[in-house]
Every structure is written in structure tokens, then in C-alpha cells.
Amino acid sequence: MTTAYGVMDAALGIAFIALVLGQVLSMVRLVLGPTPGDRILALDTMVINALGLVVLLGIHQGVQIYFEIALLIAMLGFVSTVALARFLLRGDIIE
User: Fold this and answer.
1) In angstroms, what CA-CA distances link 90 with 76, 85, 93?
2) Would you state the torsion angle of the CA atoms of residues 27, 31, 34, 39, taken in this order, to the nearest 10 degrees?
3) Which domains does the chain have, with CATH numbers?
4) Which of 33, 55, 60, 73 could join 39 in a cystine, given CB atoms 3.0 to 4.6 angstroms apart?
5) What's the average model confidence in pLDDT over 67-72?
């Protein structure tokens, strides 16, 4: 009979493996992406996967500071994606 901790550890392990696999596949798309748009989407996906990994680490360790770090990563990822897309479309970031 499995305990609640065993089920939680198994779920965290499966989620961790899925996010790491997604991160690796995003890195492949970043390197092989034929267009700059593909590369921007790969970077944005990598930010989302890193966010998920930080949240999983926070759940696993039971420390709440990781959730604040995840918020910072989300904000920086959004701003950097918008800035990079704007730079590629217009050639400058600030008008």
C-alpha cells in the first residue's frame, strides 16, 4: 500500500521529468529554429518550463521563497519576450 507521500513523490518525479524533457526539446528548437519567431517562442517556452521547475522545487522542499522567485521569473520572462519580439519587428525597443 502506498502512502500519500509516495504518491506525491511519484507525481513530482513525473512532472519533473516532463518539464526537463520540454526544456530539452525547447533548446533543440532554439538551436534549429528556421525563423527568429521560432526562436522567440522557444525562449518563451524555456521560461515557462523553468518556472514550472522552480515551482516543483518549492513544492518538493516545502519552502515558500521559491514561489516568489517563480513570480520574478514570470515577470522577467514576459518583459524579455515582448522586448525581443518588438526588437525583431521594429528594429528598436524604445520609440
Assistant:
1) 21, 9, 8
2) 50
3) 4-90 (1.10.287)
4) 33
5) 94
